[in-house]
Amino acid sequence: MGWSQDHLATKLQIVGMEHATRKKVCKIESREVWVSDDDMLFISRVLRVDLKDLFPPKIIGAKRLYEAITEAKASPYGCLIFGFLFCPELGAWAANISSTVASV
Fold it and tell me: Within a 10 A sphere around the Cβ of 41, how many other Cβ atoms?
């Protein structure tokens, strides 16, 4: 997609995520904030992906969901970031997240 954080924030505002800002997008990318159910829906809508695509296959296919989520939360990258990286529809935006995570 090749979107900037500002562009993504604007798209999120258009679909109804009123508190979306470049700073909020940055904090989501760097896993500094909790992402609400509502925000997940806005993100999936803007990125044109299924909600489940925002999570890694390990979470979606887990037989022991609690353990899979706990393990992902313990990771410095978190569930959402791995979901972005595994979602092929995100293209350049996922690469941007990857480079952001790598620089931390």
Answer: 15
